[in-house]
Design goal:
single chain, Rossmann fold, alpha/beta, 2 domains, 7-stranded parallel beta sheet, 10-stranded mixed beta sheet
């Protein structure tokens, strides 16, 4: 199997466009592509799924132990022809300036993948060789196999860039030059690109992207340079699958930010995941014993969510009945009394589920961004007291101060900094702004699935008793 990473010196160089173009090209040639994204991002994997036809998994060297990164990579790419990994930020950018922990370079080492550097060539001529030389020599363990110039102004510009590299860096191959093209731009909003659910790439867009990639990038050279890596497939421990339990997972335009590995870990624990839409469905799926409310953009669909009173009532009823419910970020916002959205002079309140007695307010400035580590302060549906997990937080909203009567389940930290308590619990519902990656502590997926099973057993026992009476 081939394995490549599409990286860049800095953010905004065009990694996502090049990545989805390569995935689509390879898929159309009959190859099975295993897509991955470095870091905690949710949006890029959605586009990977469209281009490759496969779910895209996050590989994060800070949230996940090295062995877990390798296990996820090995399992997801086991029967693929090529793994295509999109990097994050600059190639060596991680959580600090002292190491590359959490970086694309770290994932390149862990997976044995060949790096192709996408360089925004605007304003560059021969000096581009100095930039590439620095990246190529910075870490000998990270193999940069070639470069792809993006945002090139003309054929003449492309020739100068190619001559600069070929005359000074014989070990680095120029794989392609992509000229500026406004038609390839993907719309964005405050959290980044529009999601794939909101901006489904049209056939016309993909056809044009494929044409650009085929004309601009030497795919044969890329395939030849790409190594197969030195990672041997890791054996997966075979265990008896626990009894199946049905868990409802919100998946629509309003709720689309979820780590695919979280869902797979729940399946590994015997969960049958049933997708539903809080936007359009009138009720929860039949027979579910738990609910997973991922993040997303509930504020962008506030009118539709507020108008779906039957779904709000169904979720409130489930929570009051002590059904296990896990909600994060957008899912947490949906469980508050509502969200205040300001559009120019108009301010409107969208009524939501109302389990947590606070209102959420959208802000013009970012409220929080960064990795988080949490420790459970007491036993819960996510595990026993003292359990530790890692995740990420990124939002442009804030809630009113939560009443003291609502329990805080998480002790939160960022590095050595104590960020206080969060993770609000009402009955068997846990909600937080933090997106936890269950791969950082697989016991949390197991605990959630087990509590859902226990709820189902209690529900069945109660129904059986009522029938006897």
């Amino acid at each position: 199997m081939k394995s490549i990473i599409i990286a860049a010196p800095v953010s905004g160089s065009g990694k996502t466009t090049i990545t989805i173009g390569l995935m689509e090209c390879l898929k159309r040639r009959g190859l099975k592509v295993a897509p991955f994204k470095v870091g905690p991002d949710f949006i890029d994997p959605g586009y990977h799924r469209i281009a490759s036809g496969q779910p895209s998994l996050n590989l994060d060297g800070w949230m996940l132990p090295p062995q877990t990164v390798q296990e996820i990579f090995a399992a997801h790419s086991a029967d693929a022809d090529i793994a295509v990994i999109e990097g994050v930020m600059g190639l060596f950018d991680g959580i600090s300036g002292r190491s590359d922990e959490g970086s694309t370079a770290q994932i390149a080492r862990l997976t044995g993948s060949t790096v192709f550097l996408v360089v925004d060539a605007k304003g560059f001529a021969r000096s581009i060789a100095a930039l590439i030389k620095g990246f190529a020599e910075f870490d000998p363990e990270v193999r940069i196999g070639g470069v792809i110039f993006n945002n090139v102004s003309s054929e003449h510009h492309a020739r100068i860039l190619r001559e600069a590299v070929e005359s000074t860096l014989p070990s680095i191959r120029v794989v392609g030059s992509v000229q500026r093209d406004s038609r390839l731009k993907i719309p964005s909003r405050h959290l980044g690109l529009l999601t794939a659910e909101e901006n489904e790439l049209s056939t016309q867009y993909l056809d044009h992207l494929i044409e650009v990639i085929r004309d601009s990038i030497d795919l044969g050279m890329l395939w030849t340079i790409a190594g197969s890596g030195d990672l041997r497939e890791l054996p997966r421990k075979k265990e008896a699958v626990p009894p199946v339990v049905r868990i409802a997972v919100a998946r629509d335009k309003a709720f689309c930010f979820v780590y695919e590995s979280n869902l797979q870990l729940l399946r590994d624990c015997g969960a049958e995941l049933v997708e539903f839409s809080p936007l359009t469905d009138a009720s929860l799926p039949e027979g579910v014993c738990g609910i997973y409310l991922p993040g997303g953009y509930p504020e962008a669909y506030g009118d539709e969510l507020a108008a779906n009173r039957s779904m709000k009532k169904a979720i409130r009823k489930a929570i009051e009945a002590e059904m296990p419910v896990y909600a994060e970020c957008g899912g947490f916002i949906y469980l508050t009394t509502g969200v205040i959205v300001a559009l120019e002079e108009e301010i409107s309140l969208k009524d939501f589920v109302g389990i947590f007695p606070v209102t959420t307010k959208m802000l013009k400035q970012r409220k929080a961004l960064g990795y988080r580590e949490i420790e459970l302060r007491t036993d819960s549906i996510l595990g026993r007291k003292g359990a530790v997990a890692r995740g990420h937080e990124f939002h442009y909203s804030e809630t009113e101060e939560m009443p003291k009567g609502i329990e805080r389940l998480y002790q939160v930290s960022k590095g050595q900094n104590d960020l206080g308590t969060e993770g609000y619990r009402y009955k068997n519902c846990v909600a937080s702004y933090i997106h936890l990656h269950f791969g950082s502590n697989p016991g949390m997926a197991a605990a959630f699935a087990e509590h859902c099973r226990q709820f189902g057993a209690r529900k069945a026992a109660g129904a059986d008793l009522s029938q006897r009476i």
